[in-house]
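seq:
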Amino acid sequence: RAALEGILSVPLTQSPGESRASPAALARPPREELEALWNASLPLDAVPSNLEPTWTGDVRAYLCQRGFDVGWLTTPEVRGLARVLPPRERFPFPSWWPYPPEVYRLALLGFEPDGTRATLQARAIRADVPAQDKTRNPRGFSYAGTLFTDDRGRAFLQALQGREKADELEAVVIAEGLTDTLKLVQVARRHGRCWAVLGMVSGSASAFRSLSAWPRSVPCWVATDGDEAGDRYASQVREALPADVAVERVDFTSRQEDTP
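struct:
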């Protein structure tokens, strides 16, 4: 395969006897409330005339400070991937989202393994927030077994669910967390790669057990962090996917201009 300069890859092998049982049905936020909150949120490049410009501008500044080029995240193909949660005076937040949007403002949807909307996660945009508090999920509901994804990734999941032929892809790339998902979408768009990007959170590994129809012609590239948690995520993906799906650990960190 043609690879980006600087990618390091290591094939991952599967241990025998791994269970592939589908994840149990889990409690999610009410669909209508989730849809309403997402629809009330703002595109990253929005500058509403009836809202303080810094509301969305602070999110763009946060991303730029972390090395993102927001232009690549606001192209028509990926403009709906991330949004800015509205201020409380603009939207009556449901009880399961008690967090201050002044802090937790950058949001992504989480999807079920079949590509349906399931949950939402928001990232703090303030530097003084402790690392353990940098993200928030709906209170009282589970986000286990969900994935972040771009449009290509969602189409891939939907094709697997319907046992249909998926679009031609160079690879499906697995990211770790909200900002790394955005990073890899940016890398793919900047370099014209035909990748589907799926983002993991804690508990996402169970989603991969539902993907037994994964086409054997599409490799899975796991781009999780090189720490203990990233190693664990990579092993979980390898164990969850069918043994004849090619799974490789990849490292994009040498491409510093793309690494927030």
